[in-house]
Each structure stands twice: as structure tokens, then as C-alpha cells.
Design brief:
Blueprint: H1 2-24, H2 32-46, H3 55-58, H4 61-92, H5 101-117, H6 120-125, H7 132-154, H8 162-172, H9 178-189, H10 197-207, H11 210-215, H12 221-229, H13 233-249, H14 260-272, H15 280-307
Length: about 325
């Protein structure tokens, strides 16, 4: 992300270079209108939160006032940049003769480049914003959309089949916005007024899908899956072997997993909870599995720290085993 933001700043610089170069070339207010149009389109693409979101909103007095303010500010900005360019040209005593299309093309190039580097709506759905102003404007919309998207999931019956839940999750957990929607689901499922048994099982399966973990498109997805399964022996027995396989296959995604301390605490609880309805040998299996997963997370984080050039906090060389070999 930092690299992308740096590239975004470089692409944005092209936007301002165009009118400055036009001023250096001695161009006057004849190029003002096309430059203002380019600047406004750039704002529409990179700063959609500053503009009305619907056709109806465009017709309101407040929205029109905001639009006029935005356009006037861009006119002023372009005039300033043209003036700076004219001043540089006068001081240098050199006015290059160029086609007026060239500086316009330089500024226009910033629009597709910035759009490729930054999708404002998709970034907002994942809780990423260019600055505090964008966060304040976009966060309510993203939260409202996430809340609306998870309502059908929370209405699934407890006895829904895995296929039904999987279809509902595929529809709701789109690529853009999945992270925020998963966080909303975790918060909703933390309230114990309903069991949501089928949804909990489906989310444990969904967060531990290899394509979800490998892509890194849902940060902390495995940690959220663990929080949903925590305290439920059946869900933890579903989660642990999948997590062991995934941490072995994708150690670079260790930061998306629950911490080793959380896993060890869950292992201690699994082995000592007298209210658990699991047989003693299955509780022992679960405890061993959680302990093994904690070691695997520690080891993967240590290896990741070594690759990144930092000292690992804790390196343990214990082998990762799957303790679910015994029959249920």
C-alpha cells in the first residue's frame, strides 16, 4: 500500500505539471477551460466523496452549492498554476513553443493512471482512505452498505444447509467490501441473542478457503474466523485442521491468523471446560491441535520477520502435526 500511495502521488503530480508547463510556454487563459475540466474529472474519480452520489442529490440546493464551490476552487488552482508557470518562464527568459495539446495531455494522463492505482469506492469498502477528510465522508456510506449486505445472512435459519449458506456468502461477500462486511458480521455474531449456527459454520469455512487466505483480500480473515469459532468445540474442530494446512501453505499470511497467545488460551480452555459436551479424547485432540497451531503461527511469524530483515520475537522449531488422526 505505501508503494501504491507513492506512485499515486507521482501520478497526481502530472495533473499540476500540465498547467505549469502551459504557463512556461506562454499560453494564456485560452487553455483555462480544458484544464479546469480535467481537474474536475480527476476530483470525480479520486474524490467521489466530495460530490453528490445520486442523480436526485445533484438536484438539491446544497449539492449544487458544493459543486459550484468545487469548480470555482479548481478555476483558482489552474489560474495559480498558470501564473506560476508564466513567472518561471519570465525568470528563465525562455518560452518553449509547444502544441497546446501537449500540456493538456500531460494533465489528462493523471486521470487514468490515478484510477488504476486507486479505486476510491473499493478502498472505502475495505476501510482505506486517502486522508481523514475522505474517511469522514466515505465511512458512513461504507458502513451502511456493509450493514445492509449482511442482513440477509443474519436472517438465515439455523438449520440452513452448507450449500445455501455458501451461496448467500458468495453473493454478499463480494471482493470489494468483504473485509468490512466480515467485521460487521463478527460484531453481530458476538451478540448471543441467536445462535446463527449455520452462518457461523459457513463463515468458518469461507474465511478458511485457500483462495481467500492466499490472496490477502480479506485482512485478518483467519483471525475473524477463529473469533467466530471460539468457545464452540465443533466449530474449532472444523477450523483447526484447515488452519494448520493453510499456515503451512501460506506462512507469509501469518499476520492474518489469530495470535499464538489467543490459540494457547483457547487450548487451555478446551481442555478444562467441564461444560463441553465433547468426549474427553476429542477435547484432548482439540487442545493438541490448537497448541500445534500456536506453534505454527509463531514459527511462520519468525520466518516472516527474518525475510523482512527484523529479529523474530519468538522462534520455535517444533514440527507441525495434525492431531486429529484418532477416530471420533
Amino acid at each position: 500500500m505505501p508503494i501504491r500511495l507513492r506512485l499515486l502521488k507521482g501520478a497526481t503530480a502530472l495533473l499540476y505539471v500540465g498547467p505549469m508547463f502551459a504557463g512556461i510556454s506562454g499560453m494564456g487563459f485560452g487553455v483555462l477551460a480544458p484544464f479546469v475540466a480535467i481537474f474536475v474529472v480527476w476530483l470525480l474519480v479520486l474524490r467521489p466523496e466530495q460530490w453528490p452520489a445520486t442523480p436526485e442529490e445533484w438536484l438539491t440546493a446544497g449539492a449544487l452549492g458544493a459543486v459550484v464551490t468545487q469548480v470555482l476552487s479548481q478555476i483558482l488552482l489552474v489560474c495559480v498554476l498558470l501564473g506560476i508557470g508564466r513567472g518561471i518562464g519570465a525568470v528563465a527568459g525562455f518560452l518553449p513553443v509547444v502544441n497546446p495539446i501537449f500540456p493538456l495531455a500531460v494533465s489528462f494522463l493523471a486521470i487514468p493512471l490515478c484510477r488504476v492505482l486507486w479505486d476510491a469506492r473499493a478502498a472505502a469498502d475495505q476501510g482505506l482512505f486517502l486522508d481523514d477528510e475522505a474517511a469522514a465522508a466515505e465511512a458512513p456510506r461504507a458502513l451502511a452498505e456493509a450493514g445492509a449486505a449482511i442482513v440477509p445472512l443474519l436472517n438465515l435459519p439455523d438449520n440452513a444447509s452448507d450449500a445455501m449458506v455458501s451461496t448467500a456468502l458468495a453473493s454478499a461477500m463480494t471482493l470489494h467490501g468483504a473485509s468490512l462486511r466480515l467485521e460487521a458480521l463478527v460484531a453481530a455474531l458476538a451478540m448471543p441473542n441467536r445462535s446463527h449456527a449455520a452462518l457461523r459454520r459457513g463463515l468458518v469455512l469461507w474465511t478458511s478457503e485457500p483462495e481467500i487466505v492466499a490472496s490477502g483480500a480479506v485482512p485478518m480473515g483467519m483471525a475473524h474466523g477463529f473469533s467466530i469459532a471460539a468457545g464452540n468445540g465443533d466449530l474449532l474442530r472444523l477450523y483447526v485442521p484447515r488452519a494448520l494446512a493453510l499456515i503451512a501453505a501460506f506462512p507469509d499470511r501469518a499476520s492474518d491468523f489469530p495470535s499464538a497467545d489467543q490459540l494457547r488460551k483457547a487450548a487451555a480452555d478446551a481442555g478444562s471446560d467441564p461444560a463441553s459436551d465433547l468426549p474427553a479424547h476429542l477435547r484432548a485432540d482439540l487442545r493438541d491441535g490448537l497448541t500445534a497451531l500456536a506453534r505454527a503461527v509463531d514459527q511462520a511469524q519468525g520466518e516472516t520477520a527474518q525475510v523482512s530483515g527484523t529479529d523474530p520475537v519468538d522462534q520455535r522449531q517444533a514440527a507441525v502435526v495434525t492431531p486429529f488422526a484418532r477416530s471420533a
